[in-house]
TrEMBL record:
Membrane spanning stretches: none
InterPro entries named in the record: AMP-bd_C, AMP-bd_C_sf, AMP-dep_synth/lig_dom, ANL_N_sf
Positions of the AMP-dependent synthetase/ligase domain: 17-406
GO terms, molecular function: ligase activity
Domain AMP-binding enzyme C-terminal as annotated: residue spans: 456-530
BP-aspect Gene Ontology terms: fatty acid metabolic process
Keyword Ligase: yes
CDD domains, alphabetized: ttLC_FACS_AlkK_like (cd12119)
Protein name: Long-chain-fatty-acid--CoA ligase
Domain of life: Bacteria
């Protein structure tokens, strides 16, 4: 027997319709790429998203067409999220920090028909355009006054370049969002390809809305109409962790920081716009912490943040909480999980724990949110116990987890019985708290046992002289692999290998202590700011430990 409820498909356009109708005068504030601050309301954003939908229709955009964006977090990118997906086309957010050859691969693989891009990326687009012949139209996200002069022989302007504001001005806001199946593709995001060619994750209207409901829960982002949210996480990678959908769903003010992601610009926006909640990767929060310490500054309204995308060193959680009064929640996820998978908040039976014990719980990646099921398995796919000790490959499944990659028959990460292999290695404790110990390719296998490179890195960065640290496994004649600690010292800080190794004593099992330390000026990073261990391993290929080991 079927239920008797209205069969109304979940659609992304419904979010902006709701915000425009019930929170019409709530603001969206953006820092413009051209400079200055732009302000308008959900009501105005909705009007412009409908003008965009009319413009796309006039350009011949059809259901399912991929439309690329290369843009910062700003109001025009927000309009693209709604105008493109609302129409039934696919909003393909492209990460401009990727290497040019990866961008060409991604745009060609997705077969983007149009690409909308910010002024910052004009020189990049000039390089990409000849290599992406299937893109019919490139649209610059700016007004007429900021368009490059086509008469100027030195200007790199593409001959068919269109101006976004002109395009919108030529169309009315008289548009009815179409209705279609909620499983219709809405948006596309390629993984950064740290280990392989980038792979496309194709979200649907349904997966996006379910993820937004989950993101808003109290044990997740815990946001309400009274909040002011500033996503530092980019709209060009994993949909800024769903915030551009969540904000209209709850009707709160949204602050989009544009290209200015330095600590001073962020602090200014946090204060001026009375931001209460933000989300970003550890590197961003480290930069902000240094700034706050130097300036002896304090936040007036910001009191909760999410950190994720990479493991968050405990020292960062503690500093924000104790020095700045901001509670950071640690979260884990990936492009394939939309991205939220786990978030760290206490359960009732942990409330009696001492502050130190509660802090230790908070350093883990957290508990599965509703919509995500997790398990850890051994090399034969046998499930491992939830004892907080057994390490295994982390598998996930759920209605906002990828079931396949776009236009690819590579199914190596999907099990026959419906799980996705994350490529992460984790423990799960008796309370269900998951702790990422490594990416499966980074785990160090020493004497048949596994050593977590992340745990060792977290310890190393707690040393006052260490700015950044990476641990990689290096072949060893007796133990097969041993950990090598590679360190960037803080400017003017002095510390020897012996002192650093002594710092590990009593904090980890003796056999986990790195075999040796090497000092470097900088560490290699991926386009999204994560440690690029494949490069580091190449740099240290053939490395031999000092003779005594
Ligand atoms: P890629 O870097 O391949 O594009 P994503 O941007 O989707 O992939 O990043 C997902 C990966 O980032 C996860 O598989 C995990 O390795 C890492 N990651 C994300 N959040 C955390 C976290 N809180 N702690 C440790 N690692 C994390």
């Amino acid at each position: 027997m079927l239920g008797l409820m209205m069969n109304e498909p979940l659609r992304i356009a419904g979010l902006i319709e709701h915000a425009a109708k019930w929170h019409g005068d709530t603001e969206i504030v953006s820092r413009l790429t051209e400079g200055g601050i732009h302000r308008y309301t959900y009501q105005q954003a909705h009007q412009r998203a409908k003008q965009l939908a009319n413009a796309l229709t006039a350009l011949g955009v059809q259901n399912g067409d991929r439309i690329g964006t290369l843009a910062w977090n700003n109001h025009r990118h927000f309009e693209l999220y709604y105008g493109i997906s609302g129409l039934g086309a696919v909003c393909h957010t492209i990460n401009p920090r990727l290497f040019a050859e990866q961008l060409v691969y991604i745009i060609n693989h997705a077969e983007d028909r149009l690409v909308f891009f910010d002024l910052t990326f004009l020189p990049l687009v000039e390089k990409l355009a000849p290599l992406c012949p299937k893109v019919e139209t490139w649209v610059l996200l700016t007004d007429r006054a900021h368009m490059p002069d086509p008469q100027d022989a030195t200007s790199p302007a593409h001959p068919d370049l269109r101006c976004y504001e002109d395009l919108l001005a030529a169309h009315s806001a008289d548009f009815e969002w179409p209705t279609f199946d909620e499983d219709t593709a809405s948006s596309l995001c390629y993984t950064s390809g740290t280990t392989d060619q980038p792979k496309g994750v194709l979200y649907s209207h349904r997966s996006t809305l379910l993820h937004s409901y989950a993101a808003g829960l109290p044990d997740c982002f815990n946001c309400a109409a009274t909040d002011v949210i500033l996503p530092v996480v980019p709209m060009f990678h994993v949909n800024a962790w769903g915030i551009p959908y969540l904000a209209p769903m709850i009707g709160c003010k949204l602050v989009l920081p544009g290209p200015g992601l330095d600590a001073a610009s962020l602090f200014e926006l946090f204060e001026n716009e009375r931001v209460t909640f933000s989300a970003g990767v550890p590197t961003i929060w480290f930069g902000l912490l240094t700034f706050m310490r130097e300036k002896k500054a304090r936040f007036s309204t910001l009191h909760k943040m999410i950190v994720g995308g990479a493991s968050c060193p405990p020292a960062l959680l503690r500093a924000f909480d104790e020095e700045l009064g901001v509670q950071i929640r640690h979260a884990w996820g990936m492009s394939e999980t939309s991205p939220l998978g786990t978030v760290n908040t206490l359960k009732p039976n942990q409330l009696h724990l001492s502050p130190d014990e509660q802090f230790a719980v908070g350093t883990k990646q957290g508990r599965a949110i509703f919509g995500i099921d997790l398990k850890i398995v051994d090399g034969d796919d046998r499930e491992l116990p939830h004892d907080g000790v057994a390490f295994g490959d982390l598998l996930v499944r759920g209605p906002f987890v990828a079931g396949a990659y776009y236009n690819s028959d590579n199914r190596s990460q999907f099990t026959a019985d419906g799980w996705f292999r994350t490529g992460d290695v984790a423990t799960i404790d008796a309370e269900g708290f998951m702790n990422i110990t490594d990416r499966s390719k980074d785990v160090i296998k020493s004497g048949g046992e596994w050593i977590s490179s992340i745990d060792l890195e977290n310890l190393a960065v707690a040393h006052p002289a260490v700015a950044e640290a990476a641990v990689i496994g290096v072949p060893h004649p007796k133990w097969s692999e041993r950990p090598l600690l590679v360190v960037v010292r803080k400017p003017d800080a002095e510390v020897s290998s012996e002192e650093l190794l002594a710092f590990f004593e009593g904090k980890v099992a003796r056999w986990w202590t790195p075999e040796a330390v090497e000092f470097v000026d900088q560490l290699p990073h991926t386009a999204t700011g994560k440690l690029l261990k494949t490069r580091l391993r190449q740099d240290f290929a053939g490395y031999e430990f000092p003779a005594s080991t």
